[in-house]
Specification:
By secondary structure, the protein is α+β, with helices and mostly antiparallel strands. The protein has one domain: Alpha-Beta Complex (Nucleoside Triphosphate Pyrophosphohydrolase). 16% of the residues lie in helices and 32% in strands. It has two helices and seven strands. Strands 4-1-6-5 form a four-stranded mixed beta sheet, covered by helices on one side. A three-stranded antiparallel beta sheet has the order 3-2-7, with no helix packed on it. A hairpin with a 4-residue loop joins strand 5 and strand 6. It is globular. 25% of the residues are buried.
Length: 132
């Protein structure tokens, strides 16, 4: 089974809320809520992928002092195995503006369970509740 490596950002605002975004129509798992991020391209480090994906999706810039590794998720989907590297981000440059998502929300970690999410994201909910 093919392994797909992705990176995801848990953006935390000054009020302790995290950003989630709804997957757009036409993509796998459309309509589900996720943490922003995306695939690590061949030859790219996870950190470079995180910076690139967040710039492309949210029009903000991260630097190495803006994020820290939080955890990883390993999940077997039917077609591939997902390895998701998750980073905690409390600072960034610019204003968060969706470049591809139809809908985004800042929510408290305890509210995350109210939003339908991809199976790989679900283990992050209790971790974020305990951590934040």
């Amino acid at each position: 089974m093919k392994t797909v490596t992705v990176c995801a950002a848990v953006l935390v605002d000054v009020d302790g809320r995290v950003l989630i975004a709804r997957r757009p129509e036409g993509k796998a798992m459309a309509g589900l809520w996720e943490f922003p991020g995306g695939k690590v391209e061949p030859g790219e480090t996870p950190e470079a992928a995180l910076i690139r994906e967040i710039r492309e999706e949210l029009a903000i810039d991260l630097c190495q002092t803006c994020y820290a590794p939080l955890t990883f998720v390993s999940h077997a989907y039917e077609e591939f195995h997902l390895l998701m590297l998750v980073y905690l981000c409390r600072r960034w440059e610019g204003m968060v503006q969706s470049q591809e998502y139809k809908e985004m929300r800042w929510v408290r970690p305890k509210e995350l369970a109210k939003f339908p999410m991809p199976p790989a994201d679900l283990p992050l909910i209790p971790l974020l509740i305990d951590t934040l």
